[in-house]
Design a protein that fits this description.
By secondary structure, the chain is an all-alpha fold. Helix content is 62%, strand content 0%. The protein has one domain. The protein contains 8 helices and no strands.
Length: 146
Amino acid sequence: MKYFLIIFALLGTPTVFALNPCDKCDIERVLLVSENLDCLTTEMLNEFLCTFDKSCSVNVEYSEFSNETLYAVLEKAPTLFFQVIANGQFDNDILIEEIKNPINDLIDLQSVYDNAKSLFFEKELKTKYLNALIIAAEKNGENLEE
């Protein structure tokens, strides 16, 4: 009878399945991606990209570090980046704004642009990101060769 009650209690309890919760402005997730650029996984990148939010603009440390890391991902793992954003539930507008406003002047925007342009992904989405890189270059006084 005791086992029957335990089984009944377990079966009667609703089970909740959830992905890792997304903590906006989570610098630890940025650090994880930054330290693993050569061996990124889809899960790491998903967790990193979900941290971007408009509310993060007041957190200077997060804003700068996440922007630099976003560009590092675009430079080192563009294929994975586009796979993740194509399949994820991210606010592309926020990510595109980040790309339009690079923190670091030393980023090789032409290289990032060329890498992204050579990939085969959904044209409209890729074009938005390529245009963001063009705007970033213009803000830095550069002209990208398209």
